[in-house]
Amino acid sequence: MAVCFDCGREFPDGERYCPFCGSPAEVEIPSDRDLRDASPGYSAGGGGRRLIVLLFALILFLGLLLFIVYMERLISVKTAQISASIY
């Protein structure tokens, strides 16, 4: 026998709706493990997520490095322009 979540009455298994109040019968919600196993590209060790985090960190690091190099060049060009205008 199944129990209705809304009205609390019991009704026969296999019914899609409660015959007393009409609310949907309990639906089995798949567990996280079932969802992970069904997902394409899932690796048991969580390597996919780790790889994404690593790639994001690498891209962030390279962007910061390029920004620093750009700022250093900009500062050296501005310094050269200022010193050329003084002399």
Oligomer: single chain
The geometry reads as rod-shaped
- The mean pLDDT is 81
Strand order of the largest sheet: 1-2
What is the CA-CA span between the terminal residues?
96 Å
Using only C-alpha atoms, the radius of gyration works out to: 31 Å
| Global structural class | mainly alpha
Write the element-wise H/E pattern from the N-terminal end onward.
EEHH
Characterize the biggest β-sheet: 2 strands, antiparallel
Low-confidence stretches: none
Number of strands: 2
Strand content: under 5%
Show the helix and strand layout.
Blueprint: E1 2-3, E2 10-11, H1 32-38, H2 47-86
Antiparallel strand pairs: 1-2
Outline of the structure:
The chain is mainly α. It is 54% helix and 5% strand. A hairpin with a 6-residue loop joins β1 (2-3) and β2.
Key phrases:
5% strand, rod-shaped, 2 helices, 2 strands, 87 residues, mainly alpha
Describe this structure in words.
This protein has helices at 32-38, 47-86; strands at 2-3, 10-11. With 87 residues, it is mainly alpha-helical. The radius of gyration is 31 Å and the shape is rod-shaped.
